[in-house]
Amino acid sequence: MKKTLTDVFKYLLFLSLGVFLFWLSMRKLELKAMLDEIAGANYYWAAVAAVLAIISHIFRALRWNLLINSTGYKTRTSTTFYAVMVGYMANTAVPRLGEFMRCGVLSRKEKIPFNVLFGTVISERIFDMVILVLLLATTVFSQWSLLGGFVLQMVSPLSSKLSGDGYLLLLFSFILGATVFIFFWLYLKHRHKLKKRPAFQKLRQTLSGFGQGVRTIDRMKQKGLFLFYTFMIWLFYALMVYIPFKMLPETAGLNFIAGITLLALGSLGIVAPVPGGIGAYHFIAKATLTELYTISPNTAGSFAVITHALQTLLNVVVGAWGYLMLFFIDHKPPRNEPS
Q: 166's torsion region: left (phi>0), alpha (psi -120 to 50) or beta?
């Protein structure tokens, strides 16, 4: 009960943060002008962007298949794609729930251990985080004249704070190292007793399956194909950000590099712990378009609202369709023996 209340409180806290950021982004804009611009947008390009988004998700499903197959289990591209979309649908409601949901529904459909699937997702997320960091770094340094001032403005307070709190940071590092050492020493001393306990055996089995999933990239034979799928995922991500620029007259002149920049910076809003990236995405997208590309605030706000709403709608509709396909329409038997 206490854990449930804590989870509800955390959810409401982050939801409130998202709503506050949304209000902060839109509070000085002209509502009527925005509504007119949203109503007059060319939604043909939104439909094109939706198709590109689905293609990127198909490549994500194909890449996930490579990781899963390297663990010795079999999957279908269709069921993996449906599971990916169920995960995106879940993320629109509760941050980070999607990773558990897509593993859960695929585990149930194809009879693959959940901990193995979750390990592959962690491996995939770590790899994508590296790609995002590289994309951010490349975006910043290749456009230093445009972005450098913002980066220095953000980093200088942090660097001065760290230098001022150097002794505190050193003390924290010592305490963390001492804690890890004590736990490791206690484990070595009492490991024979721990190994006899059922809870320890279950934990060990779970961690073993989790580790099996995480190590999939290293064991995978088709590393070149994995990198190709990764490239295609991020290429279509960039295209689905760039193409919607054409919806509004003022943003139609922005180039593909601007799309990559918005993808890199806007991803920070999507990965923020707020439901569906609400508020955080709007804040970053509006700031990027107004401060870097001198788009008017009203148009930047309209663009953020349209693209976020369409992405959310796509995830919910295709995710719900994926769930129906997995458990009510597609009656194919599982590819693996029940485990």
A: alpha
Decide if 164 is inside a domain.
no
Q: Which of 242, 309, 250 is nearest to 282 (CA)?
A: 309
Q: Are 267 and 139 in contact (CB under 8 A)?
A: no
Number of domain units in the chain: 1
> Where in the sequence is the domain holding 35, given as residue range(s)?
7-146+171-329
CA distances, 7 to each of 1, 12, 14, 47, 231 (Å): 10, 9, 11, 36, 36
Q: Per residue, what are the HEC states of 224-263?
A: HHHHHHHHHHHHHHHHHHHHHHHHCCCCCCCCHHHHHHHH
43 DSSP assignment? T
Q: Which residue has the tokens 């290429």?
A: 235
Residue for token pair 């809003």: 269
Instruction: For residue 249, give Cα distances in angstroms to 99, 246, 286.
Output: 37, 7, 16
Range ranked top by mean pLDDT from 18-27, 61-70, 146-155: 61-70
Could you tell me if 265 and 288 are in contact, meaning their C-beta atoms sit under 8 angstroms apart?
Answer: yes
Q: Does the residue 118 lie in any domain?
A: yes
Prediction pTM value = 0.81
Phi, psi of 81, deg, nearest 5? -60, -45
What Å distances lie between residue 198 and 48, 187, 191, 193, 212, CA to CA? 54, 16, 13, 11, 21
CB-based burial of residue 75 (10 Å sphere; 0-12 exposed, 13-18 middle, 19+ buried)? buried
The angle that helices 280-287 and 2-26 make with each other, rounded to 10 degrees, is: 30
What are the tens digits of pLDDT across the range 131-176?
Answer: 888 888 888 777 767 666 655 554 444 444 445 444 554 565 667 6
Classify residue 13: in a domain, yes or no.
yes
The single residue listed with the structure tokens 């073993």 is: 208
Task: Decide if 165 is inside a domain.
Answer: no
326 alpha-carbon distance from chain centroid: 23
